[in-house]
Amino acid sequence: MKIKTISFNGRLSQAEIPYFRAAIVKEVGEDSVLLHNHKDEGLRYSYPLVQYKCVDGRPMVTAIGDAVTLFDSFHATTSLQLNIGNRQMDTMVLSIHEEDYEPVFTESPIEYGVKRYIPLTGTNVSEFRHLIAFTDKVEMLEGKIVGNLLSFFKGLGVHIQDELKVVISDITDRGVFRYKNVDFMTFNLQFVSNILLPNNIGIGKSSSIGMGNIHLIRTIDA
To answer: What CATH topology corresponds to 2-100?
Structure first.
């Protein structure tokens, strides 16, 4: 499974990512549902294979699997003029990283960080808030991470046969993300798992616009 990460110069805020997505879709000029996850009959309800992000204030696109070839026209010298809301951003490709990814269970646990993660929606929010013990809240979040990772693998067409384990090692921040006039609870946290994950893939709600972005922290010696 190939994963392509394209980083751009220029500055971008989290709130501008939907505009960045629209500008890139226009630039690519491909009538592919993978670019925006919208079909004539509604939304494409599957893991997003194109994700638009703001990492350290810079724009980034992650393309996964079947979506990688949509960005074959992007090269290290590609310059773009993008309309980001009411402003124009002159940008160019800083780097393109393409890797082959295969899910591998590891003997040594791996610790990951995930930022602005939205694991809870609908009745899950009320259920979480009514939990009294912090340990119960952590256990619920761990279950959500497992479910979101399984959704990621399902989106790749990969069936995980062994037991996927997740243990939260730290919750560093909680916040609120307002999207389409709805407030969502967000978490910055760290978790340990027994499977190798690629950098800069998103999990949870709104992962197509930069929420729930994962990065590798370290491998823990057994």
So the answer is: Alpha-Beta Plaits (3.30.70)
